[in-house]
Design a protein that fits this description.
Layout: H1 20-47, H2 55-60, H3 78-91, H4 93-113, H5 116-127, E1 133-136, E2 152-156, E3 159-170, E4 177-184, E5 187-194, E6 200-204, E7 216-227, H6 239-273, E8 275-276, E9 279-280, H7 285-313, H8 319-343, H9 355-365, H10 372-384
Parallel strand pairs: 1-4
Antiparallel strand pairs: 2-3, 3-7, 4-5, 6-7, 8-9
Helix pairs in contact: 1-3, 3-4, 3-6, 4-5, 4-6, 6-7, 6-8, 6-9, 7-8, 8-9, 8-10
Length: about 400
C-alpha cells in the first residue's frame, strides 16, 4: 500500500495544531511574501535598501501591532504573531525586523505602559503604517548590559532634557518616533522622542554585510527637550525595556524557522537536480544525513515555538522560556543556513540562491535581542539560582 510522504517543512504535522484563524493568518502572509516581498528582496539586499513600499501592504494585512486589542489593531493571539514572523522572515530577516520593532518594541510598550493620550495619538497611525517607530536601548559602549546605559535625562520645569546616543537601531532614520530608554533620578524611564524635536539627529549605518534590506541607525540626543506628556507613565526601571525584549524575542523564535525553511527548501530542490558522479546529490548518504539533520532542527524549533506560544497565550510565559527558544532556534537556523550554503558549493555564494542571504542575516539575528551567551546564562541562572553575568 502506497503511503503519502510527510511535508518536508512539517514532519510532525504541526499544521494540524493550528486553528482555522491561525492557518488563515499564516497562509495570507505566505501569499504576500511569495507575491510581493520575495521579488524585491534580493535586489534590496544587494542595494542595501529597505523596500519601504511594502509597508502599506504590511499594514493593510493587519501585521503591525497584530497582538494589540483596539486602536485599529488586529487583536490576534500569540501563535498568529509567531506565524506572521515566520512567514516574513522566510522572505527576509529585514522585513521581519521592521515588523518586530514596530509591533513589539514600540507599539507594545505604548500600549502596556503609555497614557491614554499616547495610545490614541500613536497606536492607530502606527497600525496603519502611517507612523514608523524605532526602539532606543542599545548604546555604542555595549548592548548586553542595559543597566550600564549612559543616555540620561533630567527634569527642567515641566519638561525633560535628554542627552546621549543609541546604536544599531532598526528603522532609526525612517522613524517618526523613537522610544528611548534613559537613566533619570527617578529610575530608567521611556521617552517618546519625535523626529522633529531640536537636538535629535539620526545617522544610517552603512557598509553592513548583514540585514542589508533593513535600515540600521545611530540616534543622537543633544539637549533634546521632551515634554512630560511624552514620558511613559506606567513603568520605571529595566522592567520596561526588558519586557519589550521578551515580546520581540518571542517573535524571533518563530521568525528564524522561516529562514531555515527557506534554506532547506532551496537545497532540497538543488540536490535533486544537481548530478555528480552519475547520480543526483540527494541520492547520496552524506547529503541525506545533512538534510535529515536540518529537518530535525527545524522540527525541534517548531515544537518549542508552538509550546511557547500556547504558554504565552495562557499568560504564563517566563523570560527564561523565551531565552531557551531564542538560543535553540537561532542556533539551529544559522547552522542550517551555513550548511545549505556549503551544499550548494560555488553556487552557494550567489544571491541567486537564498542561503547566503539568510546566513548573513542570521549573524545579526543570533546577536541582537540578547546574544547566544546571554540566553545561555539566563537559562543557567534559572537552573542554579546563581547570576553569572558579571
Amino acid at each position: 500500500m502506497a503511503t503519502s510522504r510527510l511535508d518536508p517543512m512539517d514532519l510532525y504535522d504541526i499544521h494540524s495544531e493550528f486553528s482555522d484563524d491561525e492557518l488563515m493568518v499564516r497562509d495570507s502572509v505566505a501569499r504576500f511574501v511569495d507575491a510581493k516581498a520575495l521579488p524585491l528582496m534580493r535586489e534590496a539586499f544587494e542595494q542595501h535598501t529597505f523596500p519601504q513600499e511594502l509597508v502599506p501592504q504590511v499594514a493593510e494585512l493587519g501585521l503591525l501591532g497584530s497582538s494589540i486589542e483596539g486602536y485599529d489593531c488586529a487583536g490576534l493571539n500569540s501563535i498568529c504573531y509567531g506565524l506572521i514572523c515566520q512567514e516574513l522572515e522566510r522572505g527576509d530577516s529585514g522585513l521581519r525586523s521592521f515588523v518586530s520593532v514596530q509591533s513589539s518594541l514600540v507599539m507594545y510598550p505604548i500600549y502596556a505602559f503609555g497614557s491614554d493620550e499616547q495610545k490614541q495619538r500613536w497606536l492607530p497611525p502606527m497600525a496603519r503604517g502611517e507612523a514608523i517607530g524605532c526602539f532606543g536601548l542599545t548604546e555604542p559602549q555595549g548592548g548586553s548590559d542595559p543597566g550600564n546605559m549612559k543616555t540620561h535625562a533630567r527634569r527642567d520645569g515641566g519638561d525633560w532634557i535628554l542627552n546621549g546616543a543609541k546604536m544599531w537601531i532598526t528603522n532609526g532614520t525612517i522613524a517618526d518616533l523613537a522610544l528611548v530608554w534613559a537613566k533619570t533620578d527617578e529610575g530608567i524611564l521611556g521617552f517618546i522622542v519625535e523626529k522633529d524635536m531640536p537636538g535629535y539627529t539620526t545617522q544610517e549605518i552603512e557598509n553592513k554585510f548583514s540585514l542589508r534590506a533593513s535600515v540600521t541607525s545611530g540616534l543622537f540626543f543633544d539637549n533634546v527637550r521632551v515634554p512630560e506628556g511624552n514620558v511613559l507613565p506606567g513603568v520605571s526601571g529595566l522592567r520596561g525595556p526588558l519586557s519589550c525584549l521578551t515580546q520581540a524575542r518571542y517573535g524571533i523564535t518563530w521568525g528564524v524557522i522561516g529562514a531555515a525553511q527557506a534554506c532547506l527548501s532551496e537545497v532540497l530542490n538543488y540536490t535533486q537536480d544537481r548530478v555528480l558522479f552519475g547520480k543526483p546529490l540527494a541520492n547520496t548518504q552524506t547529503i541525506q544525513i545533512r538534510l535529515a539533520d536540518m529537518s530535525r532542527r527545524i522540527t525541534t524549533a517548531q515544537l518549542l515555538s508552538l509550546r511557547l506560544g500556547r504558554i504565552k497565550d495562557a499568560g504564563k510565559l517566563k523570560p527564561t522560556q523565551v531565552s531557551l527558544a531564542k538560543w535553540n532556534n537561532c542556533r539551529a537556523a544559522i547552522d542550517i543556513a551555513r550548511d545549505s550554503r556549503d551544499i550548494l558549493g560555488g553556487a552557494g555564494i550567489s544571491a541567486e540562491y537564498v542561503p547566503i542571504r539568510h546566513m548573513l542575516n542570521l549573524e545579526s539575528v543570533i546577536t541582537y535581542e540578547g546574544t547566544e551567551t546571554i540566553h545561555q546564562l539566563t537559562v543557567g541562572r534559572e537552573l542554579t539560582g546563581v547570576n553569572a553575568f558579571g
